[in-house]
Amino acid sequence: MVKPELSESILDEALLPIVQPPDIEESGRRLRPRNLVPRLIRNHAHIVALVALLLLTGCVLVWSAEPSPPMHSANDAVANETTVHLRPYKDTAVHMPVFPNHAQAEYTQLGFSHIYVVHTVGHPDRLVRMTQLLQLLRITAEFVPVLDEGAEWQTRFQIYADIRQRGYRSALILDDSVDMELNIRMIMKAVHQHMPPSWDMFFPGHCGAFEGTQASVSSKLPALRVANMPICLHAHAVSFKGAARIVKHLRPSSEIMAMAIMRLKERGLLHMYSLDTPVFTPRLGTDEAKKQDRPAGNKRLAVSAINHLAVWQGSSTK
């Protein structure tokens, strides 16, 4: 912080008390204040006694002082912490929830290096519900605000750039309006065990209608398949290699980002995989007018985490 420059004097000299200078007398070439040396000699004994008293008092305090309590580091986990703090996201003035990142048994990132939640500012109901849902499932995530609809394309592109810059091995990107299977931890654990190491993008949630027609990756997990045309970005994961390729080859355009990414797949630049039955779906029923706008391929979840949250809170959703 730059301190403001002060004027030469902030005091009104007319209000200052008048102080008379001490009498001095000339003695040869030196000017010495009168009676100064005798005063110093007379007060010498008092000064020595005061210093000795201070030293003695300090020794007694050090001897009797109790040891300081141990300092706790910022990484110490608090098992029963449920408070969601707020912090500004990067350089904006928007405050997003920050979840405590405790031990593996407490909070999870579903096997990914990081989880982003894309939040559209102006929909506080989505923010509250997604925050509650992540707390229920003990998932830690970073909320990324989209300030307006026109900025969504750029926001998503910056997320891919952030993955590459931070060196994340992989990241899951979710919309703030998604629902998920209640046993999502178990599902994602199985997916990571059978995911090919060459993957660039993975779609656990999608709008594709023909993903079930593709070849399975493993006989032990038939639902994991080579992606056909998953479309939709409400729930997808990107590897470090995939994020780097998107940042390198994707160029701003008026085309929907989901379709622009599919173009990269058609050019053979991205290796994509998906689940034949999505385990993340856009939340349905929040708006009566949008119930009929259900994208193709989205199936209802076996056990909705949001419905479980509603039961836990003593309410119900349809």
Can you put this structure into words, describing what you see?
The chain has 318 residues and is an alpha+beta fold. It has a single domain, classed as Spore Coat Polysaccharide Biosynthesis Protein SpsA, Chain A (Alpha-Beta Complex), CATH 3.90.550. Helix content is 31%, strand content 19%. It is built from seven helices and 14 strands. Strand 3 and strand 4 form a beta hairpin. The longest helix has 29 residues. The chain is elongated, with a radius of gyration of 34 Å. The two termini are 54 Å apart. Keywords: Membrane, Transmembrane, Transmembrane helix.
User: Sheet with the most strands?
Assistant: 8 strands, mixed
Query: Counting H and I runs of at least 4 residues, what is the number of helices?
Result: 7
Mean pLDDT: 73
Work out the helicity level. Answer: 25-40%
* CATH architecture tag: Alpha-Beta Complex
Helix/strand-derived category reads: alpha+beta
Report strand %: 15-25%
Radius of gyration using CA atoms only: 34 Å
Shape: elongated
- Number-wise, the strands total 14
CATH first level: Alpha Beta
Strand order of the largest sheet: 6-5-7-12-9-13-11-10
Query: What is the CATH fold-level name?
Result: Spore Coat Polysaccharide Biosynthesis Protein SpsA, Chain A
How far is it from the N-terminal to the C-terminal residue, by CA? 54 Å
The H-and-E topology, N to C, reads as EEHEEEHEHEEHEEEEHHEEH
Low-confidence stretches: 1-34, 60-93, 285-297
Number of domains: 1
